[in-house]
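Re: your question from the hallway

Yes, I did run it. Sequences:
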Amino acid sequence: MSHWIIAPIVLPAMLAPFIVLAARYHIGIQRVFSLVGVLALITISAGLAWTASDGTIILYQLSDWAAPFGIVLVGDMLSTLMILLTSLLALFVMLYVIGSGWDERGRHFHALFQFQLMGIMGAFLTGDLFNLFVFFEVLLIASYGLMIHAGGNVRLRAGVQYVLFNLLGSTLFLFALGSIYAETGTLNMADLALRAQMISADATVGIRVASVLLLLVFAIKAAVVPLHFWLPSSYAEAPGPVAALFAIMTKVGAYAIIRVYTLIFPPNLEVTAGLHDVWLMPAALISLALGMIGVLAAKSLDRLVAFAVIGSMGMVMVAIALMTPEGIAAALYYIVHSTLAGAALFLIVDLVKSSRPSLALTTMPPIAGAALTAGLFFAAAIAMAGLPPLSGFIGKLLILDASFETPFAVWIWAVVLGASLISVVGFARAGSVVFWKANSIAPPDDLEPQAPPHFLSYTAAGGLVVLMAAFTVFGGYAQAYMTATSEQLFAPEPYIAIVVETEGKLSDSTEEGDH
Amino acid sequence: MEVLVASAVGVLTATGLYLVLRLRTFPVILGMSLLTYAVNVFLFASGRLTIGAPPILTDGVTTYTDPLPQALVLTAIVISFGMTAVVVMIALGAYLGTNDDLVDDPVDTDKEDAA
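Structure:
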């Protein structure tokens, strides 16, 4: 049993207290440790993804206790893909933070950042539902600190809303876990998958309630309408790079939905039939439409990007709600794309903010470094709106293609294409007001020329755009990988077998199944 | 006993939800605490209600209570306690900064942005 799979959780968990205790007054040392930690995470995640890429399922039993009684970490293609995405995103966000000096505007940024990474990595790797709750709390409590980093009254108030909404979500999660435990007597995902199939058809009330509660919890995390109200304020008010890191947090919700509703409650399970097509699909379509309408209606650039994130989560959810191998493969491609695009946009918004009095979509004098920032915004907006040539277009095409043979095809095509049009108009309006019209008004006399943002900031935002371009150029390989991942998700028997049947300490193979 | 526990969870949840829907931070935080109490009792009961039975192996005992929900509740209590502390601190900060403790968006945000 290799120990590497726990490294993405242990490494940030060790780095964070080290940064607090040993380097709290030395921003330089904090940066070095944080950056080295993120680079190490990328290496480890890439190694794990490489190991898992041939279909191997990496199992790690903590303290060698066998599942379902012990806690397990499981790395399959989906988990390792997500941790690789997280660590890559973390690198660019970290570069931006260092370049823009956000980490000097308040204390403990790097420690909180590492704890945040620990929570996200844990949520992706765990094979146990209660552990998923615990890691959700770890990532949330770190995100509370990051969200109100550098303070300010508006930000604190948005922070209160964010924290309260997520506390309610956590309470709901516990209710869901309680009902699942009461119905099945286990919280290990693989074991649950076996137990859920054993529930007799005349006693399904409890498990139905539990599965709907669980879907609600993950929908809150994924900001699916009507559970999206926490997102616009908190993402818009959070510091730019933090909002960029949060781009992965909505994907934690999407990941959890994919994991739970392919493994535990698969689409062919009688007990939870109708959950994804009757309930999730309309909600997803409405999120997509509402998000993109929000893009058009937004009065400031930061809210515009926040609504674009809601819209892109709607798009991901549409693909997930199809619950077909093609749909999930398209969803995974779009998840990677929209994480990169959302993060790039939030970083660019912060670039704009650094030399503009406010982010309101009104004509103001040109910002410092306008040409380069405008170019980046143009590229990222094209990607987010899903125009060719960037990866958003391919992702959207895959989703449309996956939905072609389903009964929802008309609805999906209409909403996806309509929402794309609206978002193109919205982004074009924002871009022309902020960058183009800026030269049409005379700058005030007392305007002091400001230095353009640090080159590291541009490296970070530009790097994300380059990554998207690479994701487009190598789209064929990426799509093949996503298809393989999706096929692995829809054939969960090896996953279940390796988790349930691997023996740990004190396990006696003659007593198997005796609980 | 089932009725008593179930109605306790129900009443706590209902009161908690009512308070959470208030507009000021103090009742909302109280409501959150009530909700976490409700969920803790609920989790405790998810292992079935048993009276006077040990949770770990003991000589000469045939009925046991399920030890796992107790461990889950312990984790949940610790987490919700910490979270409540965090939200109290953030809410206090917001209250001291803005001089009101409303939880909704201030009405004039857009005006400030446009100014």
